[in-house]
Design a protein that fits this description.
749 residues, mainly beta, Wheat Germ Agglutinin (Isolectin 2), domain 1, Immunoglobulin-like, five-stranded antiparallel sheet
């Protein structure tokens, strides 16, 4: 801002990587480049043609009162501006000179070809210049005619490193102080200079003249003509502290130059103001009520502080008009945060805007998409927004409908309501068969969190598999250990889980069950399952002698507690021989199942808690056998169970005795000991008398019922309820080998 001239500014603007200086006289409504001086300091002509060449100024104003900046102007000396700069296509830091204007920037003169600090004395009646240099100096320059002529004066006999210059007490006096030092090791030296002795009289009225402020000949600036009273350049007198700037002004008729583009409008190359691409002029009447009036913009508004009158004022000033009657148009629906996501259970604020239409007579209905809707009588009642809380995760279509007697308008958005994802679990097989498809499933908690993206990193693949479903199928083509990592992205949360899968050509697996006391101590966390898996593995190795690298054990999540063991072939024995692998695994499987059936596998969970490990014979898949030739054996095993059950029923129904039949009920003892593998204890079977008594009860019950298909179901439930374990020896049915069947079910404690 230029001091002393209202509405006048100088500014540097970067255009095409070039910094150029511009000037305005109407608070930035119009800008133009500075016309360079026609001659240099030595009187040589300067050929500088606009807009390719102009004067550019350094506009750094010093905040230090003891030093001057690159530009200076004073309220007491309107129209006089001193600044450092350069002439050319752009502002540079080389070839810097000092320029002055006495007519508020219309014309400029070069006064020094080096940088100087310039001070105003006697309210601009005298100018003092001191050279900017790191070298010691002892001269200064003084001008009484607004910088047209400069006289050289010596202010000290010994050259001085000048640190600063200060006019005391201000620019209205003729006293100044220079402070510096003679050498870098000396103390500060203060030099006080009083220029009053140079003048021999005070200024009188004849020493002043009138000066008309103008912009390249245009006298009306900011709507007025301003005439200043200032000292003649030829007068050499003292104005003193009593002098004050005198200005007279007269209003001008308004012209297009007194108006700038209104809000929402921008100036085109031809100077006209037209609506910006984002602005709809009709929106100014959106809150207008029928029967009322509003100010309809013409696209222009008077420049701030402009005092013009009449002229084209009526043409460019906004006009008051009656509010139109129209159907709703341009209905907008957004959330207060501008987001399309929301957290479950939190307030969501919807904002409704209407660009056109009678807002006071347009009703708004907002359907939240979850079965709830609200209706408001007019738009003005929605200024604070509409709040709603969603109680379920999902994607909701929110619809706003504005309606009046002339029509309706609809707007909608799709809101994603999510909740915080807290935990994920990757469900994957512990061991997989090579070249056979396995399912990988990510389980989320809570299960419904909104829109979820799954990123799967499988094995050594460098690129992930991205899905919207929580399960993928994958086939491992190589044996070995493979790591599967799943990352789940829900909103701003990303969680992951990782599992290791052993891939082999052949293996055997079997489900394991435990004595019921283990469930009481199962916290169902991954760390506990991992620890117990190691203990079970050690117990199996101790009971059977199976090598550690051929046995894997994993405890499955959930209750009741269950586990699964996997038998891997010995590569040294079965390398390249599938038939040997199958036979070898069968031998190991029989060895482990025999130990489990004889209750030889036990461990101490903690002091006093003894846990027995069983083979889960009645599981849906009691033996996972990867070879095809053993699937018939499993079916034969199931069939034999059914046949034996029928035999028991027939035996006790008709009270027949068969030699060699040994029936007993096995009872389990629970002990409290520390978790470690332990030697199995011999279970004491219940007496045969108790079992026969139970079966006699069964016989009585069956005799009292009609013979039919429901008797067999009752028999099974009876045996399951009493946890009967039946062992058959010397079987009379025709099978290759004798076997044992264990019937058990969960009994209420």
């Amino acid at each position: 801002m230029v001091a002393g001239i209202k509405g006048m500014f100088l500014a540097n603007k970067r255009t095409d990587n070039q910094v150029k200086t511009y000037i305005t006289y109407n608070r930035g409504r119009d800008w133009r480049l500075l016309q360079a001086p026609s001659k240099d300091l030595r009187g040589n002509s300067i050929h500088c043609v606009l807009p390719y060449c102009s004067l550019h100024l350094h506009l750094h104003v010093s905040a230090n009162p003891y030093t001057s900046g690159n530009i200076a102007s004073r309220d007491s000396a309107p129209g006089i501006i001193v600044a450092s700069g350069s002439i050319g296509a752009e502002l540079t830091t080389s070839n810097v000179s000092v320029f002055i204007t006495s007519d508020a920037g219309n014309t400029w003169r070069q006064i020094f070809d080096e940088e100087y600090a310039v001070l105003y004395l006697d309210q601009g009646g005298a100018l003092v210049a001191i050279r900017h240099t790191p070298l010691p100096i002892r001269h200064l320059w003084l001008s009484f005619d607004e910088g047209r002529q400069w006289n050289k004066y010596s202010f000290t006999n010994t050259p001085l490193f000048v640190d600063g210059v200060l006019g005391e007490p201000g620019e209205e006096t003729l006293i100044m102080t220079i402070f510096g030092h003679v050498s870098h090791r000396s103390e500060w030296q203060l030099v006080k200079i009083d220029f009053r002795s140079i003048f021999n009289r005070r200024c009188i009225e004849a020493d002043y003249q009138t000066w008309h402020l103008h912009n390249q000949g245009e006298p009306c600036l900011m709507g007025v003509k301003r005439i200043y009273r200032k000292l003649k350049p030829t007068s050499r007198c003292v104005m003193g502290k009593t002098y004050s700037v005198t200005m007279t002004s007269a209003p001008c008729d308004c012209t297009e130059a007194d108006f700038e583009c209104d809000y929402g409008f921008e100036r085109r190359t031809d100077g006209k103001c037209t609506p910006a691409f984002w602005f709809h002029p009709s929106s100014m009447s959106r809150s207008c009520t029928t029967g009322m009036t509003f100010l309809n913009s013409t696209g222009y508004r008077k420049v701030v502080s402009n005092n013009c009158t009449a002229g084209v004022s009526a043409e460019y000033t906004a006009r008051r008009q009656q509010c139109p009657i129209q159907a709703p148009k341009g209905l907008h629906l957004v959330t207060s945060e501008g987001s399309l996501t929301a957290v479950l259970g939190t307030n969501v604020t919807f904002l409704v805007f209407l660009e056109e239409g009678d807002g006071a007579r347009t009703s708004i209905t907002l359907d939240f998409g979850d079965g709830h809707a609200l209706t408001y009588s007019n738009v003005s009642s929605l200024e604070d927004g509409i709040k709603h809380i969603y109680k379920a995760v999902g994607i909701y279509r929110v619809t706003a409908t504005g309606e009046n007697s002339l029509g309706s308008e609809t707007a909608m958005l799709y809101l994603h309501v999510t909740c915080q994802l807290e935990y994920i679990h990757l469900s994957a097989p512990f061991v997989a068969v090579r070249n056979k498809e396995v399912n990988l499933t990510a389980v989320l908690w809570p299960s419904q969190v909104g829109t979820v993206t799954y990123i799967w990193w499988i094995g050594n693949n460098t690129e992930p598999v991205i899905t919207l479903e929580g399960s993928v199928a994958y086939t491992f083509s190589r044996e070995g250990i493979n790591t599967v990592t799943v990352q789940v992205s829900a909103g701003n949360t990303i969680l992951q889980d990782r599992k290791t899968i052993a891939v082999h050509e052949y293996f055997r697996s079997h489900l394991l069950a435990f004595s019921s006391n283990l469930d009481e101590h199962n916290p169902d966390i991954a760390e506990w399952r991992l620890d117990v898996s190691r203990v079970i593995k050690n117990s199996l190795i101790q009971a059977t002698g199976v090598r550690e690298d051929q046995l894997l054990v994993t405890v499955l999540p959930g209750l009741p507690t269950a586990a699964e063991f996997f038998l891997l072939p010995d590569k040294q024995i079965t390398e390249g021989k599938p038939e040997k692998s199958s036979a070898h695994l069968d031998q190991l499987s029989e060895l482990l199942l025999s130990a489990l059936n004889q209750n030889l596998v036990q461990f101490t969970l903690r002091p006093g808690v003894q846990v027995t490990v069983y083979a889960a014979h009645l599981s849906a898949a009691p033996l996972v056998d990867t070879s095809e030739n053993h699937s018939g054996s499993a079916m034969l095993m199931l069939l034999s169970v059914v046949v034996v059950g029928l035999a028991v029923f027939v035996i006790y129904k008709f009270k027949r005795k068969i030699p060699g039949l040994n029936v007993y009920a096995q009872m389990q003892n629970e002990k409290e000991q520390e978790m470690s593998p332990a030697n199995p204890t011999v279970a004491t079977p219940s007496s045969q008398r108790d079992l026969v008594h139970s079966l006699e009860i069964l016989d009585t019950e069956l005799n009292s019922r009609p013979i039919g298909k429901h008797q067999f179901q009752y028999f099974l439930s009876f045996i399951s309820h009493h946890r009967v374990h039946v062992l058959f020896r010397d079987c009379t049915v025709r099978f290759v080998m004798c076997f044992s069947v264990k019937w058990s079910s969960q009994q209420d404690n």
